[in-house]
Amino acid sequence: MKIKGLKSMFLFKGYVLEKIHFSAEIVQAYLRRDKRHAVKCPHCGRSMTVRRETTQSARDLALGPAIHVLLVYPAVQGYCPRCRKRATVRPPGIQPHAKATWRLMKFVSRLCRHMPNTAAGELVGVDDVTAGRWDRAVLAAELPEPDFDAVDKLLVDEKHLGARHGYVTVVLDADTGALLHMAEGKKKKSLQSFFDKLSPAQKAGIKAVCLDRAGHYRTVAEDNCPNAVIVYDRFHIMKNYNDTVDEIRRREAAQASASQKKLIAGQRFNLLRNPENLRDSAEEQLRTLLEANETLNTCYILRDALRQLWRYRYRAWGERYFHRWDAWARASGIRQLKRFADSLQKHADGILNYFQYRITQGPIESFNNVIARILHRACGLKDLDYLYLKLRQQSLNKAAQT
Fold this sequence. Notes:
It contains 17 helices and 12 strands. The chain has helices at 102-114, 117-124, 128-142, 188-195, 200-204, 217-224, 234-255, 258-265, 268-272, 280-292, 294-307, 315-331, 335-346, 348-352, 354-357, 362-377, 384-401, and strands at residues 15-22, 26-33, 49-60, 68-80, 85-89, 94-95, 100-101, 153-160, 167-173, 179-184, 208-211, 229-232. The strands form 3 sheets. Strands 1, 2, 3, 4 and 5 form a 5-stranded mixed beta sheet that branches. Strands 10-9-8-11-12 form a 5-stranded mixed beta sheet, with helices on both faces. It is elongated, with a radius of gyration of 30 Å.
């Protein structure tokens, strides 16, 4: 049969398509070595002395309804006089350890990006372990390494991945949202392992690091980035305030009468939710609560007032408002709010540094959804390095879309 039209699908330098066999589900394509091309050493590129040839095979992309396409080719075992090494030469693009072509592995990797490895493997006729191994190999080879020279602002946070992995430390580029680093644990060494990758000049180029007030990350950041300012994340600060309000709500419920206790106990989410996110019925219930309880009404007003801090454009105005809010919190007479105000005063510089760089951990919080989606799709990943590659792939794709 004539196979001229199929030759362009099986172009491998130094090899030609000799024959092809079709069946309902399997295609076998036989390659032969083109002896017009010398066998080149994979190390130095010089001609090798051919010692012997062995017949080997590798999986390739599906062809029509046949998902199993097998390339049968002669593998040349030769000796390089210059390198004084023996090597086996195969058609370009065939991965000997995978026994598959690189283009098939890339196709599987694209499938694994949008579906579980089990489903991707089923589409091409391999098991989920093989699909995952190919996906990891492609990501490791083709994902670009982080360009630390271009990074000047960092987002740092800890994430819990479940019982299998526990906590991990995550570092993102504040400008692009690209994942730069992920390490097991949430201690100093977890973040230090990131800075160990940077040169002194790259560390000196970091201008700002945004993180939570809790933990040991600040010490590591200050030790490694002498020119960087610490920016405390506003979302974590509001979360801390909400925790304080919830503590006050529980105390009020414990001291209230039976009728008031029922009203207070059922209003946790309405009390902590932003006003613009309240439904009409919830807004009415919240209004009833605030009219009945002066303490919670004060907490609610100060909560909305604290949110206004980050709407200022200039640091001087923001600092003035910050001290005004501090005075309001202390004048409230509520012990928990005074304690919260004390904690803000201790970290005032980190909070007010926001007005210089205006970065938050919003991107890293939304990255939680990416982590959860990938873990759910993969039914959990045992390999933390593979998970890092999957997450970096998603973060780079998102950065390219913005």
